[in-house]
Amino acid sequence: MLSVAEARSRIIDGLRPTGLEQVMLDAALGRVAARPLEARLSNPPADISAMDGYAVRAGDTVPGSVLAVVGTAPAGHPFTGRVDPGSCVRLFTGSLLPDGADTVLIQENATRDGDRVTVNEAVAVGRHIRRMGQDFLVGDTVVPAGRKLGARDIGVSAAANRPWITCHRRPVIAVLATGDEIALPGEPIPPGGIANSNTPMLAAAIRAAGAEPLVLPPARDSIAAIAGSLDGLRCDMLVTIGGASVGDYDLVQAGLAERGFAIDFWKIAMRPGKPLMHGTVGGTPVLGLPGNPVSALVCAVLFLLPAIGRLSGDSAAQPEIETARLGAALPANDQRADHLRASISRDDAGDLLVVPFPRQDSGMLRRLALSEALVLRAPHAAAAAAGDRVDIIRLDRLGL
Ligand SMILES: Nc1nc2c(c(=O)[nH]1)N[C@H]1C(S)=C(S)[C@@H](COP(=O)(O)OP(=O)(O)OC[C@H]3O[C@@H](n4cnc5c(N)ncnc54)[C@H](O)[C@@H]3O)O[C@H]1N2
Ligand code: MOO
């Protein structure tokens, strides 16, 4: 059976980023920049004062000397004259430094009396001046290609006078739940039925990853129904849920086969999520997730989110792996990579401590919802003692 890493590479390697579109800054959060964004304005755009005080000539700042205030230059209202020897201009944080001045005397070190200012402290050339372009210059790259845009990227883009960013189109991810037992949450649940938790959960995970979920009506357990769900479907990836295992009613593969499914792999060495399936139908990549909700979500973290990252052009699409200390001993692992749902706290030294829940059933959604992390156990990992370091993926950090 394939390893988690091999399966992920095979899924990701088959994907190409979506096409490009222009996105306004107020809609850019979580989008991925497709091209380097170059500044159209330097920051700061000119030499400006970093403090409230007076624009002066350093040579004039002999303590006790008196300067004539020849003007006032609030931020946004530059002084058009010059600061000649023996004179100064009142300015504020963000004010343009007037011609002739080479430093700023802060008001705490000056005594104002009408149009006169007495210098109380000498100032070196260049004090409290933010130089033009000290942050970036016109033409500098302020956002690299492949970056998932956060609030700070939006801030620097605005400072660079760039109201639009070229981004990859949000990938459209179709979600197809399958199963006769699946009922809409909120509807009466028939005998033997179960509320469809996977669809809203995965749609939310897809949205959190910056893609657009396209929720299809759940398909009954029949080859015709599953095949029919594909008719007229346009998306960047199809995610099926359930019907992936070996039961008589696990018909997703057979349904897809009716429309020419080319399978890449089925079943991998992981828990939960063993029956994961991957292939293409009519050129559209298909990820078949197991129906157990915990399995579906863990597979989404390990495979779907990186796939969305690749489709979106995100250069850092792998789930981030951190380490933590185990709060409880674990037995040796079998041949499947395990992903234990766990809570996180801090020990007395401030170190991250993870405690896997004692019961790891892949239908237990409340446990999953309360988990802050997955503890990663490699195939055949030896027994681990409390205090040992283990790899984890933080679910709370993923916004899931
Ligand atoms: N004989 C074997 N049986 C099973 C094996 C195996 O290797 N041999 N694998 C087990 C593993 S591991 C998993 S995981 C599951 C995966 O099964 P399927 O992908 O075929 O999923 P279903 O049978 O359709 O559903 C499993 C479970 O999840 C519930 N479910 C399904 N869809 C939803 C949904 N949208 N919302 C909420 N709950 C859902 C479904 O009712 C079942 O209870 O197979 C094992 N079996
Ligand atoms: O691999 Mo299944 O996903 O254990 O529950």
UniProtKB/TrEMBL annotation:
Q: Which CDD domains match?
A: MoeA (cd00887)
Q: InterPro entries from the xrefs?
A: MoaB/Mog-like_dom_sf (IPR036425), MoaB/Mog_dom (IPR001453), MoeA-like (IPR038987), MoeA_C_domain_IV (IPR005111), MoeA_C_domain_IV_sf (IPR036688), MoeA_linker/N (IPR005110), MoeA_linker/N_sf (IPR036135)
Listed under GO cellular component are: cytosol
- Entry-linked Pfam families: MoCF_biosynth, MoeA_C, MoeA_N
Q: Which GO terms describe its molecular function?
A: metal ion binding; molybdopterin molybdotransferase activity
Residue ranges occupied by any MoaB/Mog domain in the UniProt entry: 174-310
For this entry, the protein name equals Molybdopterin molybdenumtransferase
